[in-house]
Amino acid sequence: MAFTAQRRSERILVDMPVVVRGHSDSRAFQEETFTVTVSAHGALLMLEARVALGQKLIVMNPKNSDEREVRVAYKGAVHAGLAQVAVEFANPSPEFWQMDSPPQNWNKKQ
């Protein structure tokens, strides 16, 4: 019997601008960057700043100035000065992305 892990919410491949704030090497930073994927639970984004697993950051959606605290859940290798960094919201926040037609499972009570 095969086991297939189900995601908490569907990921959407989308290049969306975001602003990330936090601390890197004991210095405050603010970086304009972009997402690779988004979901009701967070995003995979590209980041120049060096961050640590579990670190708290603030992500802002410039379309609506909405800000959310996120936690670094994954960080990939650095390529061309940027690393893929997965961040997750404390609580599902599908409204943060302001999608016209979000996947159905984004609105389920998690």
Principal-axes shape call: globular
Beta-strand percentage? over 45%
Tell me the series of helices and strands, N- to C-terminal.
EEEEEEE
What is the class in the CATH system? Mainly Beta
Strand order of the largest sheet: 2-3-4-7-6-5
- Structural class by helix and strand composition: mainly beta
| Approximate helicity band | under 10%
Describe the structure.
The structure is a single chain. This protein is mainly beta. It has a single domain (12-100), classed as Thrombin, subunit H, CATH 2.40.10. It has no helices and 7 strands. It has strands at residues 12-13, 17-24, 27-39, 42-47, 56-61, 66-79, 82-89. Strands 2-3-4-7-6-5 form a 6-stranded antiparallel β-barrel. Strand 3 (27-39) and strand 4 form a beta hairpin. It is globular and about 40 Å long. The two termini are 26 Å apart.
Topology:
Elements: E1 12-13, E2 17-24, E3 27-39, E4 42-47, E5 56-61, E6 66-79, E7 82-89
Antiparallel strand pairs: 1-3, 2-3, 2-5, 3-4, 4-7, 5-6, 6-7
Which structural traits does this protein have?
mainly beta, Thrombin, subunit H, globular, 110 residues, single chain, six-stranded antiparallel barrel
